[in-house]
Amino acid sequence: MSTFDRIGTSRFIKTAALALSVTVLAACGSITGIKDIPEYLDSDFEHVGPRDFITNIDLARIKLGMSPLQVQNRLGMPMLSAKDQDDRWDYVLKKGQGASEEFVPYAVYFKDQKVVRLAPLTPPPAPVAEAPAEAPVVDASAVAAPEASAGEVMAPEPSLAVGADVGDAAAINDMLSNWAAAWSSKDANGYLGFYASTFEHGKKSRAAWEGQRRARLSDKETISVSVSDVQIDVQSEALATVKFKQDYSSNRYNDSGIKVLTLSKASGTWKIQREEFQK
Fold this sequence. Notes:
CATH architecture of the largest domain: Roll
Number of domains: 2
Helix content: 25-40%
Oligomer: single chain
Radius of gyration: 24 Å
Largest sheet: 5 strands, mixed
Number of strands: 8
Strand content: 25-35%
Strand order of the largest sheet: 4-5-6-7-8
Structural class: alpha+beta
Distance between the termini: 57 Å
């Protein structure tokens, strides 16, 4: 029996067992609310079958804090490592198309049964030849870090995961500024263009959500949106989060609060995948 046949048989048995357990729970009256529904029956369960690779779109659906089961529901079984390797699951990520197509080993890292990082697997560094004896040795600890001049605030470096492009932080900062500008100018098409096609907009359809956003832009005479205290965390080459203070004002309503955007990257462009706001 092939590996895929064994996996398929195993999945069939597990699915049958899950169905039986749900029937038993329902019959016993144990399910009384959302809190009683087992994790494996959440609305995102997709029962992903065996496949040869994942894509950046797949990768962008993995969020920090997800359980191994939630990762399996979205990406399927690990492709390059055993499922019982609790701290890291390895997959094959397909990047590019045609002549630029390449396949990269990619890992999902866990700690305490929660996703803590996503990053490409990198080969061990090549041995470094010994430097000539006469080459000067610089003590890095003795090199003074640049100091801010009076009144100048030095922004902290964004957190970058292995494989993340340093330029991503700058691109994300530009995207955030342009998103706020489009919102402030009531440019509905420009504003909506910053949201991924897979943006999580609740129970509404994409068309209904866009219609609501367009209505809220058009029924205001003036809108002003400003962002400050921006914190960018690039977690992988396809996933990042941005946390900032948002100040919103219009001729009808004003508010301020903390907003967190989860971003995914597809075709070289960062898009908003999820949006959370707290006053």
